[in-house]
Structures are given as C-alpha cells and as structure tokens.
Specification:
RNA binding, 31% helix, 15 strands, 4-stranded antiparallel β-sheet, S4_RNA-bd, 6-stranded antiparallel β-sheet, 3 domains, Ribosomal Protein S8, Chain: A, domain 1, 7 helices, Alpha-Beta Plaits, alpha+beta, Putative RNA-binding protein YlmH, Structural Genomics Hypothetical 15.5 Kd Protein In mrcA-pckA Intergenic Region, Chain A
Length: 261
C-alpha cells in the first residue's frame, strides 16, 4: 500500500499521522545506513500505534521498545542495524532527584519543572516518585543538561545524581483485587465488573469512545476480552484482567480484575 494511504488508515488524528510518519522515516534511515535510530519516549497508546505500523509493514525483527527498565510505561522505539543485539547501552539514563522527606513533590511537580526547562514530553520517560526521591528516565543527551540545570520541582529543592539501571526504584502502584463472574467475556461485561458499573453504563462509555483496550480505542461493547488485557476508561482509571477462570453451573465465567487506584 502507498505510504500516504497506509498512514491515513492507521492514524486517527494529524498528530498520530506525524508520529507514524517519523517512525517510518527512522526505520528507513536505519535500513539504508545500517545505523541505530530511536524515537522519543512514547506513551502506551503511541507504542500500540507503532506496533500496528510494524505489523502493517511486515517488520517483525530489528526493532525494540525500551524505557530503561523492565515494565517501564513510557518507552522509546529503537530501530536496530543488523550488527546490534538491542538498544545501545546508555541510550536511556536514570537520574535520582533527592529531596527532604518533609517535602512532598508530586509527579505533576516534577513534570512541570522539566517542561519549564524547555523539554517536551517525548524527551521524558517515566517519573518514579518515592518518599525521599524520584527516579527520572531520560535520553542520554538530556541527562547531561539536567545534571547541570535542574535544581527544583515546584518549590522543592532537588539534589541530582545519576544512578545505574539496577538502582532504579519502582514504587508499587496501589491496586484493588476484584473477583466477579460475567455472562461472557464481552468488553461491556468485563468493564462493568472492573469499575463496578452497570452493563448499560459500561456500554455507553464504550460507544462514546471513552474506553481503550490495550491502549487502543474500542467502541464495540461486544468486543472480546482475554486474560492480560488492560482496560482504561476516561475519568475512571485503569484495570487489568488478571485471570480468567472456569464456568459456574449457571454458565458464568469467573474473572479476577486488578483495578489500579
């Protein structure tokens, strides 16, 4: 399919089209010059779009998503030349920002101060806030700039140092475990169980475009859901289909959901 037509088919907005076009260009540069290429940090939704592009192009190897540690939410897309086994060491660096325990800077404080320094969102990976520090993942060139220039988040003074990937501290995200039974593994039924909604309210949310399955919009209430799927609903949050059990005597399927708080 012609490049323009494929980008139009895969993207739902001008911003998505520009992103996919840049990723496609990076892939072509990597292949023609046999050098590594990387994107900025992508959101989970953008990563899903990138995966769809690679699938449409039939590219199964030679690329990887990496955010600096296993389980990272925001990740860069790395295009690999034939001599590379994976992303370059040091492509993503971790900075530890220490502060006094009596201070309580939030994720928003850190992100706001970084963007106040002129950084765009794609330059910043995960921001992992703990009681006495925050670990921030950034690209290699950005790390050197921040070590020199970044000293405050909101009104909180920061003491920065670089740490190794093995030192990154990932806070446990609070979650509530829910067990329920559903008539079928339809999206509206499972969403209703995960967020304690009626099935009709869940179906309305889905039809209005407020629900994503694995970070991609889904407007079909009867779309199938399976174990491992991540469901997000605008204004309600995120839940994970942790497990799917057997059927009861009444033919209902047992599910376990993890709702993140």
């Amino acid at each position: 399919m012609e490049k323009r037509l494929l980008l139009d088919k895969l993207s739902a907005s001008a911003e998505e089209r520009v992103l996919l076009g840049r990723l496609w260009d990076a892939l072509e540069r990597c292949r023609s010059r046999n050098i590594p290429e990387e994107s900025g940090f992508l959101s989970p939704h953008e990563q899903a779009l990138a995966g769809q592009l690679m699938q449409a192009l039939g590219v199964q190897e030679g690329w990887a998503l990496w955010g600096g540690y296993q389980g990272a939410q925001r990740r860069q897309m790395h295009f690999l030349p034939d001599w590379a086994q994976g992303p370059e060491a040091g492509a993503i660096r971790a900075l530890r920002c220490r502060f006094y325990e009596t201070d309580h800077p939030t994720h928003r404080d850190f992100l706001g101060s970084l963007m106040g320094l002129g950084l765009t969102r794609e330059k910043i990976g995960d921001i992992l806030v703990s009681p006495q520090w925050a670990d921030v993942l950034v690209g290699s060139s950005v790390a050197d700039f921040l070590l020199q220039e970044w000293s405050q988040a909101g009104r909180v003074h920061l003491r920065l140092s670089e740490i190794g990937p093995e030192e990154i501290a990932v806070p446990e995200q609070p979650a509530k475990l829910l067990r329920d039974t559903v008539a079928s593994l339809r999206l509206d039924s499972v969403l209703a169980a995960g967020f304690s909604l009626s099935r009709s309210v869940a179906a309305d949310l889905i039809r209005s475009g407020k629900v994503e399955v694995n970070w991609m919009s889904c407007e079909k209430p009867d779309a199938p859901v399976q174990q491992g799927d991540v469901l997000t609903a605008r204004g309600l949050g995120k839940c994970l289909v942790e497990s799917v059990g057997g059927q009861s005597r009444k033919g209902r399927t047992g599910i376990t959901m993890k709702r993140f708080l």
